[in-house]
């Protein structure tokens, strides 16, 4: 998708601080962190949001959670607690329409969120 910000980051045409990459996923630091640890786990395949997923995406989404847990351990927030969340459409505040999962931790996170 030529016009998609995260496709450009994945292609390397827009810079980002990458903390993990494999054939299916990249994990980058959020440019405007909302917590001491705020990363974005992004499947390489352009998918709008979770409403756009099909069965063929099941393997990558499952792997994404396992990778997110490993990174949370590496960042030292696994024991204290962290959140993996994906925003879908307007009421949830989705602003980039390429599916991504926020990995948030390093402080107490309110629930339910505002
Ligand atoms: P959403 O609002 O769609 O759930 O999350 C989009 C996230 O992308 C936001 O947390 C925002 O700070 C982050 N973001 C927006 N533009 C950029 C960018 O150019 N680089 C990086 N690394 N993150 C971005
Ligand atoms: Zn995209």
UniProtKB/TrEMBL annotation:
Coiled coil: none
Pfam families: DcpS_C (PF11969)
Residues spanned by motif Histidine triad motif: 98-102
Domain HIT: 5-114
GO terms of molecular function: catalytic activity
Active site, UniProt feature: 100
InterPro entries: Histidine_triad_CS, Histidine_triad_HIT, HIT-like, HIT-like_sf
Designated name of the protein: Histidine triad (HIT) family protein
Species this protein is from: Geobacter argillaceus
């Amino acid at each position: 998708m030529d016009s998609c910000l995260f496709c450009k980051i994945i292609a390397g045409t827009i810079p980002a601080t990458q903390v993990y990459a494999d054939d299916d996923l990249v994990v980058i630091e959020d440019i405007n962190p909302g917590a001491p640890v705020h990363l974005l786990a992004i499947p390489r395949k352009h998918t709008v949001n979770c409403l756009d997923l099909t069965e063929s995406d099941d393997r990558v989404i499952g792997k994404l959670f396992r990778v997110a847990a490993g990174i949370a351990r590496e960042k030292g927030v696994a024991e204290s607690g962290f959140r993996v969340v994906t925003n879908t459409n307007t009421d949830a505040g989705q602003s980039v329409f390429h599916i991504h999962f926020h990995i948030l931790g390093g402080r107490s996170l309110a629930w339910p969120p505002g």
